[in-house]
Write a structure and sequence with these properties.
Helix content: 55-70%
Number of helices: 8
Structural class: alpha/beta
Low-confidence stretches: none
CATH topology: Rossmann fold
Mean pLDDT: 91
CATH superfamily: P-loop containing nucleotide triphosphate hydrolases
Strand content: 5-15%
CATH architecture: 3-Layer(aba) Sandwich
Order of helices and strands: EHEHHEHHEHHEH
């Protein structure tokens, strides 16, 4: 039996964690076994890499940044994600390879195709069955983040223009793979968003 892989993407402050948690609860209540996780991190090795890439005080070259994310992703998929899918479970992940394409490929200017290729190699071509993109404008996202954070990580602390490029990148990525993406306006009420996610997720079980 093969499981189902669902990822949540969006800029900082888009509400990914909230919607991932609501979907997890809905699926668990329906009797499914759910593994909920996040990137970067998700494993002991990944958590160490997360601390380096998000909270290191020194400068990290963009290419090194992209490779650290890919290394964390490779460990995550090998150790946690693929085994869960092989057991027939549902994996819900906060961020996956589309984050790298948006943040490092587009916003850092490393090239979307190159960054995507690195992640596909690292994960042995594992793609989600569904990716929910919560679209939020950069100003709203940063306002939400300001209310929720006591400290910013390296990416959250980037300037407004950087986050504007990330948003544009996500929308461009989603437009190229409409069958995989569900794009939602993150300014909608939480319950409305959750209902839309449930409807699309339910179709995966049909």
């Amino acid at each position: 039996m093969v499981g189902i892989f669902i990822t949540f993407e969006g800029g900082d402050g888009s509400g990914k964690s909230t919607q991932a948690g609501l979907l997890e609860q809905w699926l668990t209540d329906a009797g499914h076994t759910v593994v909920r996780t996040r990137e970067p991190g998700g494993t002991a090795v990944g958590d160490e890499l997360r601390e380096i890439v998000l909270h290191s005080r020194g400068h990290i070259d963009p290419r090194a940044e992209a490779l650290i994310f890919a290394a964390s992703r490779a460990q995550h998929v090998a150790e946690k994600v693929r085994p869960a899918l092989q057991r027939g479970e549902i994996v819900i992940m906060d961020r996956y390879l589309d984050s790298s394409v948006a943040y490092q490929g587009f916003a850092r200017g490393l090239g979307a195709d190159d960054v995507r290729s690195i992640s596909l190699w690292a994960t042995e071509d594992l793609l989600p069955d569904l990716t929910v993109l919560l679209d939020v404008d950069e100003d709203t996202g940063r306002d939400r983040l300001h209310d929720a954070r006591t400290r910013y990580d390296r990416l959250e602390a980037e300037e407004r223009d950087f986050h504007a490029r990330v948003r544009a990148a996500y929308l461009e990525i989603a437009a190229t793979e409409p069958s995989r993406f569900l794009v939602l306006d993150a300014s909608l009420p939480v319950d409305d968003l959750a209902a839309a996610v449930r409807t699309r997720a339910a179709a995966l079980f049909a």
